[in-house]
Design goal:
Layout (H helix, E strand, L loop, with lengths): L6 E2 L38 E4 L8 E2 L1 E6 L2 E2 L11 E3 L6 E2 L4 H9 L12 E5 L2 E5 L3 E3 L6 E3 L11 E2 L1 H4 L2 E6 L4 E6 L15 H6 L4 E3 L2 E3 L13 E3 L7
Parallel strand pairs: 6-12
Antiparallel strand pairs: 1-7, 2-14, 3-6, 4-5, 4-8, 7-12, 8-9, 9-17, 10-11, 13-14, 15-16
């Protein structure tokens, strides 16, 4: 059969210790804002990418991948179907063959620490520079892509592993998706805003009290871990 894109994920989120729920623990909860941009959670401007016409998904035009500013040589035909932004998917999917090209691009970049290496994804209007997918090889001191976690089938997809360190804005009214670098302000919320016992259990500082989540404000919410968003990944001039 035709091989699909490798699923790149730094680590599968673990099931909660001792849990009898068939669910995945993504760590501390984030926040969902309805309407507008929460500028307290962004560092810099929001970059927008138009949703492809004729699709029922949040599919964006995918233009290239690489490491830092080093473009990976992937045939443009591999990007023809775009990239779906899917908050319900756990992993990041790239076209089959991109892995080898990303590894080759990373081998050209000298590094001293992991923060010197980022996976770059160029969609129309925004460059996503993601931490955790590319590391600094401890012996060779070049950027090295993490070991594949297996193959998946379908088109490229930006799931939780790729978006968890970014500010994401889904804008159906203007048919676009916005991306921004996260600020260092933690995603904390009123305990009463967690409506179920399970989601309340995720929130540090909150506890389920009979029929509602009690406490003041949650603490320890997610914040910037180093992923950034700019306009362009690669210098094509």
């Amino acid at each position: 059969p035709t091989q699909g894109p490798p699923a790149l994920s730094p680590a599968p989120p673990p099931l909660p210790t001792g849990s009898d729920h068939n669910r995945i623990d993504y760590g501390q909860p984030g926040l969902m804002s309805l309407g507008g941009t929460d500028t307290a959670l962004t560092a810099g401007r929001v970059y927008y990418s138009k949703i492809l016409q004729g699709t029922k998904y949040f599919a964006l035009r995918l233009q290239g991948v690489g490491v830092n500013e080093q473009h990976a040589s992937v045939p443009t035909a591999a990007f023809a179907s775009g990239m779906i932004v899917d908050t319900g998917s756990t992993q990041l999917y790239l076209p089959y063959g991109a892995w080898t090209a990303i590894s080759a691009a990373g081998a050209k970049i000298r590094c001293h620490q992991d923060s010197d290496c980022r996976l770059s994804i160029q969609v129309q209007g925004a460059c996503l520079k993601l931490v955790d997918f590319v590391k600094c090889h401890p012996q060779h001191r070049v950027c090295s892509a993490l070991e594949q976690r297996g193959l998946a089938y379908g088109q490229p997809m930006l799931g939780f592993a790729g978006m968890k360190d970014l500010y994401l804005e889904l804008d159906l009214s203007d048919h676009q998706v916005g991306f921004a670098t996260r600020s260092n302000k933690a995603c904390n919320a009123k305990c009463s805003s967690f409506l179920t016992k399970i989601t309340c259990s995720f929130a540090k500082g909150c506890a389920w009290e009979g029929t509602q989540c009690g406490g003041g404000m949650s603490s320890g919410g997610s914040k910037s871990r180093g992923s950034t968003v700019t306009a362009e990944c690669f210098n094509t001039r």
